[in-house]
Task: inverse folding
């Protein structure tokens, strides 16, 4: 009868690529804090200089205290609340407007005093390098220059040359526009790169989805009628695509061929190599005289098409009438036979890896199965990992673990063994976990 085993798998996900837009948002918040720090320096420095009236300057203390308070509140909010970065630019423009009004007032009533001019230039430049919207900045600077000309034309008894005053403010504004132009060009390049990266991610996800579907088709979960045999498979794929495969073929004489293999590596390339190996098996199995001949035919058909990869495999042929199992290895670790008395031993044999050398060197081995015997094939993902004690698990430890579960049979045996292996991992599996299990009734 046909026997089926459900595969264990997780939804495959591709890690999201961090958006450049998010990076630019964080970078914008950093520039906001930089500008606020300069504003704080300018507004707070005057509080440390004593009474400006002693120098003949009009500089109301309450205005500076108010500015320092507002700036400190804005800085605090920028560190306290994540959503503040959405409003950082409008808040910056508000502070720029307040600082500009304050500075123009001080320049007007103090006859274009040089210290206040330097402060206003600092305000203009720090705002210019912190704003992202070039149009908004240009509009604000045009208004700023208009106010600057108005103040320059109406100030009484200027303490510096008015031309120097105009030059200082206009040059700082022009420099701000140049800086934002260069910065925005860089941002646009980064955003374009982000768009291309997102397209690349979408393409990768689509290719992985195709490869994952391909991989699932590589592992048989249903098997043909097998007389006095019951056949099960266990398949827990890695979250990325791997190269494990299990395929069967029922011959004209009633013999049942099994091809259990693992293409080196992970990802789309490994899945594609495995898919080609499956096609080679399906093509050659009907004409293969024996498992070793079958491996040779697969090897020869793939050598002309695949380079840079290799495949480990076990090819088995089961004579359902005689209960004779003939098998051949291609660089794969030995399968296990569990005898009816519960003893566990390896099915000895060796052979060269597929595609590793121009010529394949292997041979056939044969055993007669008895009622109650069980044969287990398994991929290296079942034992090549580090346990919770950070020690390499290994093949011998896996065989010892199998001995603990020989009282179980069928699907329960495979699922229990698989769960036990998963429980021993110190971290999520880094390879496919695949098993093929034959029981003799």
Result:
């Amino acid at each position: 009868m046909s026997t089926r085993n459900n595969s264990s798998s997780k939804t495959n996900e591709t890690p999201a690529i961090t958006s450049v837009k998010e990076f630019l948002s964080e970078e914008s918040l950093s520039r906001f804090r930089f500008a606020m720090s300069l504003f704080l320096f300018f507004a707070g420095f005057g509080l440390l200089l004593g009474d400006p009236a002693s120098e003949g300057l009009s500089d109301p203390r309450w205005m500076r205290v108010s500015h320092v308070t507002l700036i400190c509140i804005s800085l605090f909010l920028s560190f306290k609340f994540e959503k503040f970065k959405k409003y950082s630019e409008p808040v910056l423009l508000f502070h720029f407007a307040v600082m500009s009004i304050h500075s123009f007032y001080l320049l007007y009533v103090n006859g274009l005093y040089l210290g206040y001019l330097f402060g206003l230039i600092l305000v203009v430049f720090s705002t210019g390098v912190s704003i992202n919207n070039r149009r908004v900045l240009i509009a604000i600077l045009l208004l700023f220059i208009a106010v600057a000309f108005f103040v320059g034309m109406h100030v009484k008894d200027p303490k510096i040359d008015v031309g120097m005053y105009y030059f200082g403010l206009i040059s700082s504004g022009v420099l701000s526009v140049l800086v934002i132009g260069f910065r925005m060009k860089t941002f646009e390049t980064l955003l374009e790169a982000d768009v291309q990266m997102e397209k690349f991610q979408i393409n990768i996800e689509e290719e992985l989805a195709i490869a994952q579907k391909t991989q699932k088709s590589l592992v048989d979960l249903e098997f043909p009628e097998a007389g006095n045999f019951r056949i099960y498979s266990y398949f827990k794929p890695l979250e990325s695509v791997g190269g494990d495969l299990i395929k069967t073929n029922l011959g004209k004489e009633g013999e049942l061929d099994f091809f259990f293999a693992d293409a080196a590596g992970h990802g789309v390339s490994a899945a594609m190599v495995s898919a080609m190996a499956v096609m080679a098996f399906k093509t050659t199995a009907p004409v293969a005289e024996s498992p070793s001949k079958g491996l040779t035919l697969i090897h020869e058909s793939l050598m002309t098409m695949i380079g840079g990869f290799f495949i480990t495999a076990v090819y088995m042929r089961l004579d359902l009438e005689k209960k004779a199992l003939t098998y051949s290895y291609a660089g794969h670790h030995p399968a296990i036979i569990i005898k009816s008395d519960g003893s566990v031993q390896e099915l000895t044999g060796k052979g060269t890896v597929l595609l590793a050398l121009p010529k394949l060197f292997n041979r056939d081995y044969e055993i007669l199965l008895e009622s109650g015997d069980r044969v287990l094939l398994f991929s290296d993902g079942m034992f090549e990992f580090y346990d919770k004690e950070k020690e390499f698990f290994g093949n011998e430890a896996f065989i010892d673990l199998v001995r603990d579960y020989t009282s179980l049979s069928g699907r329960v045996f495979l699922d229990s063994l698989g769960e036990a292996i998963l429980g021993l991992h110190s971290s999520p599996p880094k390879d496919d976990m695949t098993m093929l299990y034959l029981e003799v009734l």
